Amino acid sequence: MEPNQTQKNMTEIENSIIADIVSGKYKNFYLIYDRKSTDDTNNQKNSIKYQKSENTRFAFREKLPIAPISVEGFFKEGIISERHSAFKENSEMTFGNGDKVQYSVERPKFYKLVEWLNNGYFKGAIFLCQDRATRNKGDETIIRKLINAGVDIRYTLTTYDKTSSGELHMDIDGMFAKHYSRVTSEKISLTIRKSRADGLCTHKAPVGYLNQGNMTFKPQDPERAPIILKMFKKYAEGSWSLADIARWAIEEGFTMPPVRRRRTEAEMLEDEENDESTQVEAVCRPPTYNNIHKILTNPFYMGKIPGNDGQYFDSTSHEAIVTEEIFNNAQLELKKNNKSARYIKPLDHPFRNMIRCAECKRTYTPYLKKGHIYFGSRCARGCNNHFRSFNLTLITRTLESLIGNLTFTKEELDDIDSSISTEIATLDKKRIDLIESNERKKKKVREDLAYLNANRLTLLRTGAYTPEKIKEEEDSMNLALKSFRDQEEASDISMAQTVKEVIKLSELIKDTLPHYSLCNSYEKEQIVKIIFSELSFSGKTLNFKTKNGFQSLENRLKNHFVTNCGPTGNRTRP
Q1: What's the half-sphere exposure (Cβ side, CA atoms, 13 Å) at 85?
Q2: DSSP code for 163
Q3: What does the alpha-carbon distance between residue 53 and residue 126 come to, in Å, rounded to a whole number?
Q4: 231 and 174 within one domain
Q5: What's the sign of the alpha-carbon dihedral 211, 214, 218, 220?
Q6: What is d(CA 127, CA 86) in angstroms, rounded to the nearest whole number?
Q7: C-beta separation of 189 from 202 below 8 A
Q8: Residue 70: exposure state from Cβ atoms within 10 A (0-12, 13-18, ≥19)
Q9: CA–CA distance, 541 with 521 (Å, rounded to integer)
Q10: What stretch of H or E contains 75?
């Protein structure tokens, strides 16, 4: 059979299985979830093999039917295997309509599991113990909500009573699971910081040194170190380019340290099913232009390592290959050869100076690369926003979805029509009450102002007021009168007319959307400039502010829009 035909048949079978799952065919079956943690590799409970055997034995003993099906990339014969930390969680949150708070789940298979359990596709899930299910508050909340919704969550090594004591038992186990990971993380961080303070190399040494699994001693590579020294000397002479040195190094037989190729998706899935990783042969590759540049700019080669504050200082775990003088001379040559492109007139790219980093306020600058326009930001040192670049397509599509969300939906228009008569009548009554209240206040201010003018001399002679105090009181009263007049002018427009204008604006924006999708990037820029006054990225979240006139529509939304969300506001996943 042809390979393409075989692949097509497998896809049809898998689609049929998923259709059966969605139809509820396996709603009385369970799934087993096994997770290998990176927190404690020596713990036997971390073994995928151990978890499979214990969870399967538990399901047989308790007569819990396991779904006899497989979904490629998810589970095999009803058993999910995943290699992922359950302690780390994404701190980014999204606030949506209807008092909803959304946050991402870092484990892709766990996310899919809880999604299918929530949809009622399976009766429940089996975990070895609570720390295999979750080690952070966010994922624990999801498990608790599933239990409250009637999903049957079982633990092989523990049974929680459906009483307050059982709830307390689960709280304590969850607390210790999180505490264990926090302590482990804290110990590793403190060890790394102490080692750096002692001058030890806490990271993998670069090419030219041997990594023997010991941070206290990084010996020089007897084959590569002499060639690296010659690289520095040649470049410091000023007559060699990086490309010349790369070619020379290859002729000398210089290669980069052996590295393994990236594993395929099939190999990664196979690794999650077993405790042993797939062995991929490491290959030595010739140096490239970029490899040479990284070597010549790395202070590690003059015996320096980065400290806890980012500053370089003398290392106690390795010796220098080059002297500081040679290294500094090479840096001078690199700086001399570094040519920056300067433009008298900025390049004509769309959305220039319109999008900023929400953290450091620096601009995302458009640039052309391989025929496509990208935006990049050189954020300030210490900026927490790591979303440094994106393409033009992303921003135009995100803005298109955002503009669409500014318009009223059919349901919102129906709600407005159904409540407009009573609510506008109430608002108009409030407007009339405000006008009457302002009239009483204006009358009192005018009387006070008339008294002040009529008795000005008397107040000055008796010393009750100084000239400055009288002027201050007079200005204050006139300002109060102006404020009342402004409120009356603003309230002269009826509530019905205001609602009508807002609906008309929404319809105009809706009519603009088809034109936006068809027009070119520069025309899209003009539409965006009319609607928005500020655009900024914080992570993958697009923050925005609309111009005056559009704020009534903006107030329906929270002041942010997530780029990897669909038009409904729900987070989408690849």
Answers
A1: 14
A2: S
A3: 12
A4: no
A5: negative
A6: 13
A7: no
A8: middle
A9: 21
A10: none
Question: Is 149 in the same domain as 238?
Answer: no
Residue 418 CA to residue 60 CA, distance in Å, equals 58
Angle between helices 392-405 and 521-531 (to 10 degrees): 40
Write the pLDDT tens digit of every residue in 484-535: 777 666 555 555 666 777 778 788 888 888 888 888 888 999 999 988 888 9
According to DSSP, the residues that pair with 80 across neighbouring strands are 33
Helix axes 410-454, 467-491, angle to 10 degrees: 150
What angle is formed at CA 489 by the lines to CA 485 and CA 491, rounded to 5 degrees? 115
Please report the DSSP string for 357-379 in residue order. Answer: ETTT--B-EEEEETTEEEEE--P
- The pLDDT tens digits for 165-194 are 888 888 888 788 778 878 888 888 898 889
Of 557 and 144, the one with more pLDDT: 144
* Residue 570 · residue 563 · CB < 8 Å: no
For residue 273, what is the domain's CATH number? Answer: 3.90.1750
Cβ-count burial 436-472 (b if 16+ within 10 Å, e if not): eebeeebeebeeebeeeeeeeeebeeeeebeeeebee
Beta strands in 268-316 (DSSP E): 282-283, 304-306, 312-314
- Looking up residue 45, the CATH number of its domain turns out to be 3.40.50.1390
C-alpha torsion 48→52→79→148, nearest 10 = -100
Residue recorded with tokens 């909803």: 100
**Total structural domains in the chain?**
3
The distance of Cα 239 from the centroid of its chain, to the nearest Å, equals: 46
Q: How many residues does the chain have?
A: 574
Q: What is the pTM of this model?
A: 0.50
Among candidate residues 498, 523, 539, the one where a domain is terminated: 498
Measured at the CA of 514, the angle between CA 513 and CA 517, to 5 degrees, comes to 85
- Which of 337, 356, 375 delimits the end of a domain? 337
- Extended beta strands in 27-90, E state: 30-36, 79-83
DSSP state of 262: P
* Residue 305 CB coordination number (10 Å): 22
User: Which residues span the domain enclosing 279?
Assistant: 225-337
254 lies in some domain? yes
The answer to whether residue 411 is domain-embedded is no
Phi-psi region of 363 (alpha: psi -120 to 50; beta: other; left: phi over 0): beta
Say if 377 falls within a structural domain.
no
* Cβ atoms 117, 150 nearer than 8 A: no
DSSP structural state of residue 46: G
